Amino acid sequence: MSPRKLLNLGLLCVFYVHTSQAVKVENILTQSVFFQTLEPTGEYMFQFDGDEIFHVDLQRKKTEWRLPQFGEVASFEAAGALQNIGVLKYNLDICEKMSNYTKAKSVARDDIHIYTEKPLVLGEPVTLICLATQFFPPVIKMSWLKNNEPVTVGVTDTVYYPAPDGSFSKFLYLATVPQKGDVHTCSVEHDGLSKNPTNKFWYAEVPSHTSHSSKNIICGLGLAFGIFGIVAGIVLIFKGRKNMN
């Protein structure tokens, strides 16, 4: 890794709104901006209570709303984000020289999760979600495999989401139609991981559920055996008393 790969992360502002007391926060509006010499070179993003509102695509110089409906009731000029990124780039050049081009330390936990957006039904479309958390700097490679074969169709991802502790998280989605026996793998690579790549597996299996009729039969058998045990116990008690007499 080049010694110029130094990260400059700027959390520009955090607003607290609708607060009833000085120490109680009901909602948080977060603006996260960073620039780095790694890829991606930077990010400009707004969150509300941890959910993304929008981010600015720095390559296309365009505001991307997390949900299209947001763009119908609000607007944001991408030029403002590009100006902020320019300021951070200038500051990064100064910080690199002051630190003698010391590179940032990469840190990552093996904290990877896979889950579905809705209950699984084999043979029906579902979206798999892979979540990687607790890593720094915000440079990570995530990919999907199905039965050990790379998958690119139906794959989407998110920007990097900052956490209060300075780490980042990222989501990777896969639209698929699982069949019985399929094995999906979320492969994650980061300089801070103890093993590269680190793989998380998801198996296309529907949890077995006992039918209502089976439950009724089991309950009926249990009740019958219980009654039989009580009757047998009473008979043995009377026989024991008779023998004693």
UniProtKB/TrEMBL annotation:
It comes from the Eukaryota. GO terms for cellular component: MHC class II protein complex. Residues 123-198 form the Ig-like domain. Residues 1-22 form the signal peptide. SMART domains: IGc1 (SM00407), MHC_II_alpha (SM00920). It is a single-pass type I membrane protein. One of its GO terms (biological process) is antigen processing and presentation. It is found in: Membrane. InterPro entries: Ig-like_dom, Ig-like_dom_sf, Ig-like_fold, Ig_C1-set, MHC/Immunoglobulin, MHC_I/II-like_Ag-recog, MHC_II_a/b_N, MHC_II_a_N. The keyword Lyase does not apply. The chain crosses the membrane at residues 220-238. Keywords: Disulfide bond, Glycoprotein, Membrane, Signal, Transmembrane, Transmembrane helix. It holds the Pfam family MHC_II_alpha. Belongs to the MHC class II family. This is MHC class II alpha chain. It comes from Rhinella marina (Cane toad). The gene is RhmaDDA.
